[in-house]
Design brief:
This protein has 77 residues and is mainly β. It has strands at residues 13-20, 23-30, 33-36, 52-54, 65-67. It has one domain (11-67).
C-alpha cells in the first residue's frame, strides 16, 4: 500500500492461524476484508498472483500468510 491521507484505513490486524512447521501463520484483515493471493485462481496460491481484498472464502489457501524466521549469520559464515 502506498501512503496517503487514509492512514487509519491502511492498518491491518491479524488473526492467528497457528504454525506451519516453524513458520507463524496468520490472516491479514482490514475493515472486514481479508488479503487474498488467489483471486485469479481460487484455492491455488501461485507465484506472481496479485493480492486483493475481499470476503473470506473457506478452503482457500490464499488467505494464509506465514512468516519465515530467518537465521542471522555472523561474519565468519
Amino acid at each position: 500500500m502506498s501512503p496517503n491521507t487514509r492512514r487509519g484505513t491502511q492498518r491491518f490486524s491479524t488473526i492467528s492461524a497457528g504454525r506451519t512447521s516453524s513458520d507463524a501463520c496468520f490472516h491479514p484483515v482490514n475493515q472486514g476484508q481479508y488479503a487474498n493471493s488467489t483471486a485469479a485462481h481460487p484455492g491455488q496460491p501461485l507465484a506472481g498472483n496479485l493480492v486483493t481484498m475481499g470476503g473470506f472464502r473457506p478452503n482457500d489457501d490464499g488467505y494464509l500468510w506465514c512468516a519465515t524466521r530467518r537465521l542471522q549469520r555472523g561474519p565468519a559464515d
